[in-house]
Specification:
By secondary structure, the protein is mainly β. The chain contains 1 helix and 11 strands; from the N terminus they run αβββββββββββ. The protein has a 6-stranded mixed sheet, with no helix packed on it. It has a 3-stranded antiparallel sheet with strand order 3-9-8, with no helix packed on it.
Length: about 150
């Protein structure tokens, strides 16, 4: 009986959907003060068609900040209790697009501290993948005037 269970588990893992996580290959640029969509999607390993991410865990982090949590979706809902303060109330997934494999992150009111490396990680029960890329923030810089007496 034990060997039947092991064989069934092996077959389930072998037949589980493998996928790639796809995002920008170059630095992504955003204007300071704007809202931006950081692109990330899930595609079948076999034919690059989209794969539903509704039942998967989606984690956006900042590797350059010690893998600080930017946004987390799991068990069909956003769970951001461990989210770093600078992102509170500024991130969202397009939950209606998860069924199409779109796990992109909307980041509102982009500012200079948002520049850096972002990682989009997607996990299913038997497979995981991730993509990392850099965000550059341009424009709207403030300088304090110098006063000479």
């Amino acid at each position: 009986m034990k060997s039947v269970w092991v064989m069934m588990l092996f077959l389930h893992c072998a037949l589980s959907e493998k996928f790639n996580v796809v995002g920008p290959v170059a630095t992504f640029v955003a204007a300071a003060g704007s809202d931006v969509v950081l692109p990330c999607s899930v595609q079948r390993f076999s034919d690059q068609s989209s794969l539903s991410a509704v039942d998967m865990n989606i984690t956006w982090t900042r590797p350059d900040l010690g893998d600080a949590l930017v946004h987390f979706y799991g068990n069909h809902k956003d769970v951001n209790t461990r989210q770093i303060p600078q992102y509170r109330g500024r991130t969202a997934l397009f939950t209606e697009e998860l069924q199409n494999g779109d796990v992109s992150l909307r980041l509102s009111d982009v500012d200079l501290p948002d520049k850096g490396e972002y990682k989009c990680r997607v996990e299913s029960r038997f497979w995981e993948g991730h993509v990392s890329f850099n965000l550059r923030v341009e424009g709207k810089y403030y300088y304090l005037p110098s006063v000479y007496i």
